[in-house]
Amino acid sequence: MNTSRTEKYLKKKKNRSRQLEKFAVRSAVALGLAAVFFTAWYVVEHIHSTASQNHEKTASAPLPSSSLSPAPTSASAAVKSAASPSPSPAASPSASPAGDQHISFSFVGDVMWSGNAGKLLAQKGYDYPYEKVKDILQRSDLTAANLETPITNGGEKQEKEYIYRSAPEGLQAFQAAGFDVVNTANNHILDYGVKGLQDTLSSLKQAGIAAVGAGMDKEQAYQSYEVEKNGIKVAFLGFSHVVPNGQWKAGINSDGSPRPGVAETYNYTYAVGPIQAAKKTADIVVVYVHWGTERKNVPDSYEVDMAHRYIDAGADLVIGSHPHRVQTIESYKGKWIAYSLGNFIFTTNNDPHTWDSLILQADCSSTGACALQAVPVVVKNTQPKPMSAAEAQSFKQSLLAVSPG
Fold this sequence. Notes:
This protein is an alpha/beta fold. Helices cover 34% and strands 23% of the residues. Strand 2, helix 5 and strand 3 (181-183) form a beta-alpha-beta unit. The longest helix has 52 residues, at 2-53. 50% of the residues are buried.
């Protein structure tokens, strides 16, 4: 009898502990999202307020330097923060994170100019997608995206449901818009086989755009791209948890030859090693990861687990893609996770949920501390455009409504 009661008590205590842990994570996600999107709303208000004075340059209005403190990750701290919130960043913009040097980033989601998008840009020109956002993108020291397409006119079409290929002619406008780095670890980069991947890497190099996440062998696929700006060393890495089959994973063939492909992260340990190695020499480590469920507006549980493990390994910013919708933003141990930024330039469809997107901007110090602000955009006919204040407010509320906690 006593043993049975003890077991029941211990089981009940263990379940309660798990519930508190889950609550802590949910609270951190909700508070982090609320903070970032309050700033996003402020940014849009600022843009459109300035636009009323200057109709010719709506998108180029200066963004405020609102600094966000990462949301607490413990249950007690989360409750305390919710009960006694600090002043909103919109009401009183604060300084950037402490540190002598600073670097600014802009991150966007999925990019491609294939299918319907390719046909439209063939008529309107490859500069068309960036006309209303390039001033925002170009202000950052480094701008990155998930390149959801091979850049090639050749290659062998693979047998899969959705197959994309984008013209190399579009790269000049992409680079001119401000893009410096792309993640190529995704479920489309090999749509036209190894030749398509090879052409992509070659074209990107010629255009002066760095690529991470895929390569002609495993070493290249998992290799970080390292760059120094403003005295701060930054490392980018790319991984994918979404591949059509095992032959897409960079590795070794049965005959011992290298297999070109993507840096996969079905096993999180495959990413942990490269992240730890990058952190040894870099002040800031940025991880792009392709994961999740398409058309879903909240992250899967495995994404949360992997993102936390990436940060534990040394990542400072984790940027997600693949769901084609914007998902939640979380603060974990003082670092930021954006589970999905949605489509940025993508083939058009009739689902309005996929039209909403984010330009996520980060101002980081050499210590790895980052302040975030988000610019919500609506993407119609492959052209991202900053949302109106009313659109941004509605968008923020829809995201907060599905945020746990």
